[in-house]
Design goal:
The complex is a heterotrimer of chains A (293), B (300) and C (601). Chain A has 293 residues and is mainly α. Chain A has 13 helices and no strands. Chain A has one domain: MetI-like (MetI-like fold). The two termini of chain C are 21 Å apart. Classes of the chains: A mainly alpha (293), B mainly alpha (300), C alpha+beta (601). Chains in contact: A-B, A-C, B-C.
Chain lengths: 293, 300, 601
């Protein structure tokens, strides 16, 4: 934890052995490791993720509270980055070698190489601290509970802006790159060449033949990326104190809250698996070749 | 008999050398790749010479001469940190740890990835199947949370961090290598060798390995980039070793010391820029290598 | 064309939203409750006093419950709280307390002596770790009538007026079985203090409502909100923007950056605590193993058993430099065990006694102990082995990491090779109890009474609060003696002598006494009250005085304090709108242009 507890605590700054013993007993840590392990497997299978050390509440409850802020942040970030990334990628692929293409390619490479939390810190420093345009932390202003729905959603939007922008910038490079090469590949396909040879309008070719086919790999990528996005969320939420799963992970690390860490880890893994399945299904719908067989 | 064999070997060696020269010729024409290479050479040189450029004493807190949190000045071109040490010195020294962790992690990752990839591709039956499942399982697990769980269980040190990164990044490599092995395995000369009675070990070392090696090499370059980024992230989350100066721990200290509120951009920007440059360089080299190894990509 | 018009419509809609967003919601005023907001980087860990160890929890208990006898605002001397008055028999074995008849629980039940008796007895029976040390001397507790409480002690005791135990309602806690004492959620929380916790959202906020029937009179503040932040940086930003009225526990530099901010007061006050370098002096003895359950072997370096080596380490550490560089002067240079904040008991050393910073002196002492650099490698050795020590810092605290860097570098100058490692508090605790360490850096906080902080270095605290396994017979017997010295001046003399012994033996090198750093808004609130008077902190001390005295600066100020600025303007809306318009617009334009170019060709 930032800040020194020894300085914050005016009284007992440590946990005494008897308290540690109590905690051990309470959480069943006094039993042999393998018993704990099988208990854990058993509990997990029966849907119980255990009790968080620091919150003294069921892990599932603690996680459930933090899910929606993360879904909101990642949802906006994913939609934003795919949309912008696709536009840049399509444009670049279609107009390969143009100045816009080269500069967007460079931009994509640079953002890919950036630790997203660093980008977040820079944006925070620039927009929130120096210019004072945005709030620095949280999802809403404390004390707004009684305000109108409009004021509250504006407030959330205000808080969402910087973390979402950070993630969008961090992610969009990759989408742009994939879309660009995907478009270029599709443009060499026979049906596209044929369509162009037939004198079909370029815009129409792009819309009807190129984009739908080029989208396929991006769908897979978006699904595979969930794991990567989650990683980004952990650090970006930490920088912006966004009350979601990433922040929770950071807290769990600092508090050595292993049940909570395990629970989060399970959830992240499950999310990635589900996303992969969803991508497979979606591909079946999008790609006529898969649909037919 | 033996002279004939020698001749064959010499021819082989010559052919390989020619292939390497040819690859370099192609690589050299790749602008991105060359820029990346120059940046890399620059940073590796700095890392190797770090102790010469910045004697260790200059990083000792008791020897720190500067005022704490001073903005850039003539004496301290990039300003100072919270203990009055030169940020430039720290960035230079940090290159050592960041690159070392990156390389060690990559070696671990490549060794595991290649071994499992080759085994999974080469051995049919349940060995291959089990290894493939294992790879898939690791591939699906989001690797940063896994790395976090592992790192938080262990006491932070350089090797631990490298180890954690290594054992969480190998599945991608394994997947790639396996695919390549599968295709190499079907080539006529492998079948011929087998028909002539060559054992598994011989086939793998003589035929499979040389053919997947270029792929492993190209992949290594990309994995280093990932490893360096991961080291930064883990350190930032407080899972690194705070006593060793790396770009990641610098960012953590900058964040914790309140650089954002204090507007101390000179503490935040340099380590980040160094990370971006190195990762970018590795990525560019990786793309360039891909093109060298896969002629179909060259036209792009 | 149809598409373009749709885009335009959407864009206009977005733009129409912007002014509304910029105007924001500027409601406020009226009959809003007076809300006081505290920013904290630490969350509570529990609402249950038997479980909680984090500072915000203690601050809550200060507001939520009453002690039997309080600590005065002026100088921490005993002051009426639940007990209006008290007297002690000749010889100090019997203590009689008279309770305030007005006191009642938040649920309306009266507070009686039975409640106090129940609370104390439960702690004694269950040996509740966090509080038992305050009550060990208690022999019997009686409640002859609802307003009278009589306690007899085994020996004369000075501690009977400084028992930091929140009094709990019997009618709630008697339904909590013994095995659930520490796991009980205690929600809703019923106490007898000036405020009551009504809502706690972990990691977000804690809301307290005023107790209108408080026996000392209801405070002016209607609501207190503890707002939890994940890092001090964002907390300071929120404070500057007026989102919270008070913040504490700041990194020094951030604290100092608030100096001169308009409408803000920064306060750096001595806190009763210190940060120390601890050494493993464990020598396994049958007594330690059987009686206290200490480990059978020590993994500490044997050199640390030699007082001269420990003193050499003390001489090699520049406490003044550490205070200057790490605390940036916001604290006092470390020396003896009882912090200067407890002025009556703190031992101020003579110039001649101080083990200052002298590397040569350090080397001499090492040589006396047989450690010399015979092989010329810069590290002292004995019997062919270099003196190498491990130094643990806390990964949770950058201050201890920084201090470790300095100490490592000084000790190496003196010829001791040091390897530093940052470990979690959990791991450090485990390492200490299994005696697998050489040196570590950690801190302690003291009660207003010095008994606790003195106990830390006693043998009887092995496997308990002792983290050095230091055991000295004289110190131990004087510790027992000071407990029974009713003449406070005599007690102070004994305690000072104990500190001199401990300082010479150096199981601890006290590095510095950290100040508590607070910042608060004086443009919105008056009534900030320091405890002790003139030197102490305004909050996070030993009594709810500031909370009871706080008043909004003016009528308008009250409204401002009540409804904080609601983040009115929304540049986010504006920027999102513009970007959306730009992207969609340029996409459409690109399509159309391409189309027309194609048509022309």
């Amino acid at each position: 934890m930032p800040g020194d507890p020894a300085r914050i605590f005016t009284r007992l700054s440590r946990v005494s052995p008897s308290v540690i013993e109590d905690v051990r007993r309470e959480f069943g840590l006094d039993r042999p490791l393998f018993v704990q392990f099988f208990d854990y497997i058993g509990d997990t299978l029966s849907g119980s993720l255990g009790i968080s050390y620091q919150f003294a509440r069921p892990v599932s409850e603690v996680i459930a509270e933090a899910v929606w802020p993360t879904v909101l942040l990642l949802g906006v970030a994913t939609i934003g980055s795919t949309a912008i990334g696709l536009v840049i990628g399509i444009y670049g692929g279609w107009n390969r070698g143009s100045r816009t293409d080269t500069s967007s390619l460079g931009f994509a490479l640079i953002t890919y190489a950036m630790p997203e939390f660093w980008l977040g810190m820079l944006l925070l420093l620039l927009f929130a601290v120096t210019l004072g345009l945005f709030p620095t932390s949280f999802m809403s202003t404390p004390g707004l509970e009684g305000a109108s729905a409009f004021a509250r959603s504006t407030d959330i939007l205000n808080h969402l802006f910087l973390p979402a922008l950070t993630l969008i910038l961090a992610l969009l490079g990759e989408y742009a790159l994939i879309m660009r090469s995907s478009v270029m590949e599709v443009m060499n396909e026979d049906y596209v060449l044929t369509a162009r040879a037939k004198g079909m309008r370029e815009a129409l070719v792009l819309r009807r033949h190129v984009v739908p086919n080029a989208l396929l790999p991006v769908v897979t990528l978006a699904a595979l990326n969930i794991g990567f996005i989650v990683s980004g969320a952990i650090t970006v939420e930490t920088v912006f104190s966004w009350p979601g799963l990433g922040q929770l992970t950071f807290d769990a690390i600092n508090a050595n809250d292993y049940p909570l860490l395990q629970g989060l880890f399970l959830l992240f893994s499950a999310a990635v698996i589900v996303a992969n399945l969803a991508a497979d299904l979606l591909l079946g719908v999008l790609d006529p070749r898969i649909g037919r067989t | 008999m033996s002279s004939e064999l020698l001749g064959v070997r010499a021819v082989k060696r010559q052919r390989r050398r020619r292939a390497v020269i040819e690859s370099w010729r192609v690589y050299r024409r790749n602008l991105l790749g060359m820029i990346g290479l120059v940046i890399l050479v620059f940073f590796v040189a700095i890392a190797l010479l770090a102790d010469v450029i910045v004697p260790k004493e200059r990083l000792s807190v008791t020897g720190a001469t500067g005022e704490a949190f001073a903005p850039p000045s003539a004496g301290y071109p990039l300003g100072t940190d919270e203990l009055g040490r030169s940020i430039l010195d720290l960035v230079i020294q940090g290159s050592q740890i960041s690159l070392t962790v990156g390389f060690i992690a990559t070696i671990i990752s490549m060794v595991i990835g290649s071994l499992i990839g080759i085994a999974a591709g080469y051995f049919e039956g349940w060995t291959g199947a089990v290894l493939l499942r294992l790879t898939d399982w690791f591939l699906v697990i989001p690797f940063l949370p896994l790395a976090i769980v592992l790192a938080s269980l262990l006491t932070p040190s350089l090797l631990v961090i490298a180890f954690v990164i290594g054992i969480t990044t190998w599945p991608g490599t394994a997947r790639l290598v396996r695919a390549q092995v599968l295709s190499v395995k079907q080539r006529p000369y492998v079948e011929r060798a087998r028909a002539l009675g060559a054992g598994d070990a011989q086939i793998i070392s003589r035929h499979i390995l040389p053919n997947v090696f270029p792929l492993i090499f190209a992949n290594t370059v990309l994995v280093v980039a990932i490893a360096i980024l991961t080291e930064t992230t883990l350190s930032f989350l407080g899972l690194g070793d705070p006593f060793s100066v790396s770009w990641g721990t610098m960012l953590e200290f900058a964040f914790e010391a309140g650089s954002i509120s204090l507007g101390a951009w000179w503490y935040l920007v340099p380590p980040g820029v160094a990370i971006v440059l190195v990762v970018l360089a590795f990525t560019m080299c990786g793309y360039a290598l891909d093109e060298v190894l896969d002629p179909r990509l060259r036209s792009r | 064309m149809k598409r373009l018009s749709m885009v335009l419509v959407a864009g206009c809609l977005l733009l129409a939203l912007v002014p509304a967003g910029l105007a924001g919601a500027q409601d406020g005023g009226g009959d809003e409750p007076v809300v006081f907001r505290i920013g904290s980087v630490n969350d509570l860990d529990s609402l249950n006093p038997f479980k909680a160890v984090e500072a915000p929890s203690y601050e809550l208990f200060e507001l939520q419950y009453s002690l039997l006898v309080g600590f005065s605002q002026k100088d921490l001397s005993p002051t009426p709280s639940l007990a209006e008055s008290w007297e002690t028999s000749e010889g100090g074995l019997t203590w009689t307390y008279h309770l305030n008849p007005e006191a009642q629980w938040h649920d309306g039940e009266p507070v009686t002596s039975e409640d106090v008796k129940y609370t104390y007895e439960r702690i004694i029976e269950e040996e509740q770790g966090l509080f038992i040390d305050y009550l060990r001397q208690v022999e019997t507790i009686e409640a002859p009538d609802p307003e009278t409480l009589v306690i007899t002690t085994k020996e004369p005791s000075v501690q009977m007026l400084s028992i930091w135990v929140p009094i709990l309602p019997k009618h709630i806690w008697e339904n909590v079985p013994e095995d659930e004492t520490t796991s009980f959620k205690n929600d809703p929380t019923i106490g007898s203090g000036p405020f009551q916790a009504v809502e706690w959202r972990r990691g977000q906020f804690l809301r307290l409502k005023v107790n209108p029937d408080f026996y000392r009179g209801a405070p002016e503040v209607d609501e207190i909100i503890f707002q939890f932040y994940d890092n001090p940086d964002t907390m300071v930003q929120a404070f500057k923007q007026g989102e919270v009225d008070y913040i504490y526990g700041l990194p020094t530099r951030l604290f100092q950056s608030l100096d001169g901010e308009e409408g803000v007061e920064t306060l750096s006050s001595p806190a009763p605590g210190f940060t120390e370098l601890g050494m493993n002096t464990y020598e396994p003895t049958p007594e330690a193993i059987d009686k206290y359950g200490a480990p059978k072997t020590s993994e500490g370096h044997p050199a640390l058993l030699d007082t001269r080596v420990r003193q050499a380490i003390n001489w090699a550490i520049d406490e003044a430099e550490l205070t200057d560089k790490i605390l940036l002067g916001e604290g006092e240079v470390g020396s003896t065990l009882v912090p200067p904040a407890l002025a009556k008991y703190h031992l101020e050393l003579d110039e001649s006694q101080v083990m200052g910073f002298d590397i040569d002196r350090s080397k001499e002492l090492l040589a006396e102990a047989g450690y010399k650099d015979t092989d010329g490698n810069g590290v002292v050795d004995k019997g062919g082995e270099d003196l190498e020590l491990r130094l643990f810092a806390r990964s949770e605290s950058t201050d201890t990491v920084d201090a470790a860097r300095y100490i490592q570098s000084w000790l190496e100058e003196a010829g001791i090779s040091v390897s530093t490692e940052a470990v979690s508090d959990n791991k450090l605790t485990d390492d200490i109890y299994s005696a697998e360490y050489d040196l570590f850096i950690w801190g302690y906080g003291s009660d207003p009474d010095p008994d606790f902080i003195l106990s830390v270095l006693t043998c009887s605290q092995f496997m308990y609060w002792s983290d050095t396994f230091w055991c000295d017979e004289d110190y131990q017997s004087m510790y027992e003696e000071q407990k029974t010295q009713l003449d406070l001046d005599q007690r102070a003399d004994t305690i000072k002598e104990m500190q001199a012994i401990a300082y010479q033996a150096s199981p601890y090198v006290i590095l510095f006494y950290d100040n508590s750093l607070e910042a608060y808004r004086t443009d919105k609130w008056t009534g900030w009250t320091r405890q002790p008077e003139g030197t102490g902190s305004v909050l996070f001390n030993f009594g709810p005085y500031t909370y009871e005295n706080l008043e909004p600066v003016s009528a308008e100020g009250g409204a401002a304090a009540g409804g904080t600025s609601t983040g009115g303007s929304s540049p986010a809306l504006l920027i999102v709108g513009v970007i959306a318009l730009f992207i969609v617009g340029s996409g459409v334009v690109a399509f159309m242009r391409k189309g027309s170019r194609e048509d022309r060709a």
